[in-house]
Amino acid sequence: MAKILIACLGFLCLFSSAFAADEAAQKKEELARLKKQAAQKQEELKKYRAQEAAISKEISALESRKAATLREKNKLESDINYVEQTILSTEDKRAALERSMPMWRGVMADELADFYLTPHCAWCPGEDSPEEELFLERVLTHKAEFFVALKEENEAAKQKIYDFEARNKKLLAQSSQIEQKQKVITTNFLKKQKDLNLTKKKAAQIREEINELNKSARALDDLLAKFEKQRKAAAAKQQAKADAAAKKAGTTAKKQSSIAKIDVPRNSLPWPVKGQVISKFGKEYRRDLNTWIFRDGIKIAAKAGEPVRSVDAGDVIYAGPFRSYGNVVIVDHGKGFFTIYGFLSRIDAIVGEKLQRGRSIGTAGLDTQQSSGTGRYAVYFETRQGTTAVDPMDWLQKI
Q: For 33, 190, 206, 366, which has the most beta carbons within 10 A of its beta carbon?
């Protein structure tokens, strides 16, 4: 008989040790999960910082291109002014030549007719000597050449004006292209500046979200750890009473497990509200924030003021505001099984109240969780096995 008792005691010690080891493993696993979530958030923050640096670099490059384009535009404008001034001065010169041409044409015609077509007597008194006539012939030849040169210069001036007008037209087209290019660069610059501001804002939101989620998760873990400790203490006290009563009666009390347990069949719990799941348990990608958010519960869409009901019978152990979860009610369903209801616009339950399954505990309110909020009427719902968050979808009825 003594051997049997010793064997039983040894088995119980081993069984208790196994439970303690299992609980320690669960705690360690939960801590590792939280650390992993924090590390992933830090990686996301690093990514946003890298994006911010890249955009800043692009903005610097755009500023350089913008300055180069402005210099190019200023040079083109200077060239255009030069061409326009040259056109004006050449046009004035050409106009003066054009005005003088009839006068020179008349003078040359009169002098040539007088010299070559009018008969002269070499020995008449008052007539020019051969030397003087040779000089006059050379003067007339020079004047004729000068008249031809004037005509050529006039034609060259016209061509020059035409060439400068063509160049001016080309420069104006280039200037228009530069202005268009400048507009594109300015538009891109402003867009990049906007992207940079948005990235900075998102990075700030992520930092704030990391801090708030971590603080809220730690605070909720601490609160549930406190309730779990109280539950275990109460269970140990009840076990001690049972052991004492059994010893007095000469019998052996049944050992109660202290391991947290959700003592209901899977997919058997009614929903706190009827609605679509808009945020899932665990890792969720937010496209608007370009980041991942980690949650210990789910968000269920609801109508404004819709009653929120307890999914099972239990005791209300918390009712009031709780950090980023808004108004919260926590229900202890026994054996380490807790449910948490957040975003309540009104609380209709009090601490210590015993609830039946389906009892209304409040009404649905707005999801206003900073950067990860949906802005919709919803209910935040968590299922806890002890201090460990488990996916509520494994326990809620399938719909």
A: 206
Of 12-26, 60-74, 181-195, 381-395, which has the strongest mean pLDDT?
A: 381-395
| Domain shared by 181 and 230, yes or no | yes
Query: What is the C-alpha separation between 374 and 378, in angstroms, rounded?
Result: 9
Q: What is the pLDDT of residues 237-284, one digit of tens each?
A: 877 777 777 777 777 666 666 677 898 999 999 999 999 999 889 877
The two three-digit tokens of residue 366, written as one number: 């707005």
Give the integer Cα–Cα distance in Å for 100 and 104.
6
- In order of 184, 228, 338, 376, 381, the CA distances from 225 in angstroms are 59, 5, 11, 31, 18
Count of the separate structural domains present in the chain: 2
User: What stretches of the chain adopt beta strand conformation (E)?
Assistant: 277-279, 282-286, 291-295, 298-301, 307-309, 314-321, 327-332, 337-347, 354-355, 360-366, 377-385, 388-390
The sign of the dihedral angle between the CA atoms of 207, 208, 212, 213 is negative
146: containing domain: 36-249
Q: 200 and 52 in contact (C-beta within 8 Å)?
A: yes
Which tens digits make up the pLDDT trace of 8-39? Answer: 444 444 444 443 445 445 555 655 555 565 55
Q: In whole angstroms, how far apart are CA 197 and each of 47, 53, 59, 163, 273?
A: 15, 12, 12, 50, 39
Same domain, 241 and 274: no
Helix (H, G, I), strand (E, B) or coil at 283: strand
The answer to pTM > 0.85 is: no
